[in-house]
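Annual report, structural modelling task.

Input specification for the magnesium ion complex:
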Amino acid sequence: MNTLLEIENLHVAFKDGSETVEALKGVDFSVSRGERVAIIGRSGSGKSTLLRVLSGLVSPDEGHVRVGDHLMGPDDRPRRSLYSKVGLVFQDYGLVPQLSATQNVMCGCLHRGHGLSALGKFSKTDEVRARRLLTQLGLSNRLDHRVKKLSGGEQQRVAIARLLFQEPDLMLLDEPVSSLDVHWARTAVDLMSLANEGQSTLVMVLHDLTMARQFADRVIYMHDGRIIFDGDPDEACCRLEEQGKPLPCQPPSADGSVEMPLFPIVSASQNATDCPEGHACATGPATEPRATEPREEEEPRLPEPDIGGVGGLWGKGSFYATVLLAALALYIWAAMDVEFSLLDVFSNTDNAVDFAQRMFPPDFDVTSTVASSLLETVQMALIGTTLAAFLSLPIAVMAARNISAKPIQAGARVVLNALRTIPSIIWGLFFVAIVGLGPTAGILALTFYAAGYLGKFYYEGIESIDPGPLHSLRTCGAGPIQRFRWGVFPQVLPLMLGYTLYMFEYNVRAASILGIVGAGGIGFYLYSYINNFQYDRAATALLLLLVVVTIIDAASSKLRAKLMD
Ligand code: ADP
Ligand code: MG
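The model returned the following structure:
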């Protein structure tokens, strides 16, 4: 049997604040083509990190991994062609929740072709194949369902179907059957084993030895970033039986939890002699004999709760009192500085009453004039918002921290800030000067003004997406543009449409004022009615505006709720 995977002296450490967590502390093993290897061990022992290194997502700090002719060491970046060799099913599946089951499975082919292929849609042949795989895994009635609507077990099968679609030589699976019943777990492992003409190599993180015995022909037991056993699953069980710890050889308890006992350290020579007859003893790579049993995992201790005591409460109280006093002083200073006084309002109530009285009854003779200018206002808002959406999208993509390079981010943010800083009415004046009076100037003003806001909403939306699906698309071989198309865009689209609708609502209000500078819309009439003391006509304009804005608000919030579903 030829070797497919070789791992030598693998070390990986993560920086966690000021602390360094050593996740892998010198891991060595190799796997032959066609082998099915189970990795088990307690939570935090480094299993997922190991799979991430093998799939090229995490670079080793020391040592190297070789998969076929791909070498990954501390200074190597994985080539895209690695993903025709290696595929990974993530512990949390890594599916794109907004895509359908079939679309998610088809993402498994993104390593084929160049980095710009399959940006529109996938081929018919791919679709037929993806649907066949999902049907084999019992999902024939879920093919076009969005993944976020599927159960955990169904999602897990979609992730396995995507791996099968990818057809890698080395299949890495992080707890691949944890949510499946025995039937589907067996079917999934059989399908994976039969892929690649029965030559698939499987490295699976499994829950316990019972599963390892069922699904694998070799088990690697990890503890604290090291391998402490590597051999036959039955041998592993016999070791535990000798220790009087038969637990992991029995089915897991109802809640699925099994206590993982620490494994006795054995050397290759001990393996050969210590095991009772009837058990196939390990002949695999020897594990380092260790002087002492590995340390039991320490229970993490919660810090003592700080209830403060009387002194603490007093300390906090005086802090809040100081903040309150400072805030009060700030308000008084601001009001005095601008000579703000509510008395001015109360001493001039006659003017207010006169103003209100002149508005009633509204003069409905101007209804048709006002209605047509209101329609123009809505049309301006519609076109302006749409143009703003197109203008701001590329700037938002460049401004988002999670997908863009630092210098580009900074430049894009400066542009968006500048667009936002200028009020819509100033944009209106600017465009009236360029294109003359009328709605065109208003539309351009709304476009630039709204682009500043939409760009900010969009990039914040992009930054808030779940990065998990992007990592898993990387392990399918997707290039940056493909990751954006299939990973970022579906996640952020409902959010962006929601923001755009909100901006449209807002722009109808903003457009109503642009008429003041001659940039079209109802503002022109509002301004001239008030200037000519025709308050009853202004009242008609305001009433109609209120009706239109209320209808648009109601319709758009319904639509936004539907988009987020
Ligand atoms: P397992 O899959 O066996 O439960 P992991 O490989 O996920 O374990 O983690 C091994 C150790 O590395 C844990 O102590 C975990 O907290 C730490 N670790 C894993 N990923 C990170 C990370 N990105 N940053 C900091 N620490 C990490
Ligand atoms: Mg894990």
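The first strand starts at residue 3 and ends at 16.
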